[in-house]
Amino acid sequence: MKALTxxxxxxxxxxxxxxxxxLVNQGVVEPFIEQAIELENQQAAADGEIINPTxxxxxxxxxxxxxxxxxxxLGLSLGALFGLVFAYGRKILPGSTNVKKAIVLAGIMWAVLxxxxxxxxxxxxxxxxxxxxxxxxxSLYVAILAISGFSAxxxxxxxxxxxxxxxxxxxxxxxxIAVAFVALPANPDAIAAPMDLVNSFRIASGATMTMFxxxxxxxxxxxxxxxxxxxxxxxxxx
Length: 238
Known about the structure:
Blueprint: H1 3-28, H2 30-46, H3 53-89, H4 98-120, H5 134-162, H6 168-183, H7 195-227
């Protein structure tokens, strides 16, 4: 394994995919966030709160700029994880090229790390929800994310060791997730925002996260086919 090449293409793939995600979100997801914040401000004004438009505009500008950096950091983190899993399971993944193999793995990780948590705890615009329950809501989301991720990893390792039937492994994972869905409480907050806004936000954010995982798989697979980090360097002798 060419360690430096592996690290470089893994981090670069994540950074590229994450930055693209953040840029696309500016046009696709941000408008729904703006609507949710406007509704929150209207409610605050109706309750007698004083809102400074200049300060709000400056904060939103800072927030939008920071989201680009946040996207890159998210991409680096998920890219590093994706690279490690791909290096471990590349040989058993279906596909004739590393691009196809990586996209297959991206689909699996999208389902495990995004779809399952999103089904249990669907995303809401940032301005929707009771601020007093934010830590509870974060804890619940992290709990289902960890259960889904570690369960998938454990089942994958076990299936390789005992050569589990291909249908058994998904069934075991599905059983664990079903128990988790029943055991974990529902989102404690009632949604006061219009459901068409909330649903539009969920669809938009889901679409961009799906795009991110596809991009991550395609970019890393292309880099892998080009650099072949799994091959050991050969020392030429005279």
